[in-house]
Specification:
Distance between the termini: 46 Å
Helix content: over 70%
Shape: globular
Number of strands: 0
Number of helices: 6
Order of helices and strands: HHHHHH
Largest sheet: none
Strand content: under 5%
Radius of gyration: 18 Å
Length: about 160
């Protein structure tokens, strides 16, 4: 069995902090000036799913932060909290971009949705490993969803 050292934990967290730092401005590249109003067929095809994703991308991350703090205290990897905070902020930026697009298209936002409730419930009662697994599952689904969303309309923003 490989014994992880404090330095290897911190090293991994530093890699993630660097990754999120590099992503800080990637949403600035969204071509808002080229935005078009999508047609009603396109809007109907995406409005429910985009609203669900916009809601899911927005979270304060309180349960995740508590679990991350416990992990940091157990391992001494306080850089993990920096990376975690940057991850949560990145997800919130995704939510903000989706909200801006939705506003431009007159697509209503959701206050609650059952899949979001399930994800939040699991993250709230779970430990850090399960919380990360749930978030990774959502990220994998999101990667496919965003590619499909971009192909579903003629919007350059999407």
């Amino acid at each position: 069995m490989i014994q992880k050292t404090h330095e290897s934990y911190v090293g991994n967290s530093l890699l993630w902090s660097d990754h999120f730092a590099k992503n800080l401005t990637h949403m600035d590249k969204v071509p808002w000036a080229k935005q078009v109003i999508i047609d009603p067929v396109e809007k109907k095809a995406i409005e429910k799913s985009i609203a669900t994703f916009q809601l899911g991308e927005n979270s304060e991350g309180n349960s995740f932060r508590r679990a991350g703090k416990k992990y940091a205290e157990e391992t001494g990897d306080f850089e993990y909290l920096v990376a975690l905070d940057m991850f949560i902020k990145e997800e919130n930026r995704h939510s903000d971009v989706l909200a801006r697009f939705m506003d431009s298209q007159d697509i209503p936002k959701l206050e609650r949705e059952w899949t979001d409730d399930v994800f939040r419930f699991i993250r709230k009662i779970a430990g850090l490993n399960i919380c990360i697994s749930v978030l990774l599952t959502a990220e994998i689904v999101a990667a496919v969803f965003y590619r499909a969303l971009g192909r579903s309309t003629r919007s350059p923003v999407l």
